[in-house]
Amino acid sequence: MKDFIFFKKGTQISAVEKRNAEAATLLKEQGYEQQFEEVTALDAASALMRFNDIKKEEDLNWYAFAMGPAFTILIVIVLGILAYLFVR
């Protein structure tokens, strides 16, 4: 298995073997920005699939953290109103 690093320019993403400094330098010169993630995979295609999975998971986690507290606050408010109506 090989270690891959990723470069992004707009919506285009390229995977390069970590030990291939020449290709990494070439992509940087072309305006690609190196991404933080590193993946171990059999080939570049598998590495790109894994990278996309990681990015999707990050997006889902953001929505989960954003919606969890909002939903909890909504439930507390509704339960508070119901409790007020029944106690009154």
Topology overview:
Elements: E1 2-9, E2 12-17, H1 21-29, E3 33-41, H2 44-87
Antiparallel strand pairs: 1-2, 1-3
Question: Distance between the terminal alpha carbons, to the nearest Å?
Answer: 68 Å
| Overall geometry | rod-shaped
- Mean model confidence by pLDDT: 89
Instruction: Calculate Rg over CA atoms.
Output: 22 Å
- Low-confidence segments, ≥5 residues, pLDDT <50? none
Structural class: alpha+beta
Q: Helical region count?
A: 2
Summarize the biggest pleated sheet.
3 strands, antiparallel
Task: Characterize the quaternary organization of these chains.
Answer: single chain
Helical content (DSSP H or I, runs of 4+): 55-70%
Main-sheet strand order equals 2-1-3
**Which percent band covers the strand fraction?**
25-35%
Number of strands: 3
Order of helices and strands: EEHEH
Describe this structure in words.
This protein is α+β, with helices and mostly antiparallel strands. It is built from two helices and three strands; from the N terminus they run E-E-H-E-H. It has a three-stranded antiparallel β-sheet with strand order 2-1-3. The protein starts with a strand and ends with a helix.
For the structure shown, list the relevant keywords.
88 residues, 26% strand, alpha+beta, 2 helices, 60% helix, three-stranded antiparallel β-sheet, single chain, 3 strands
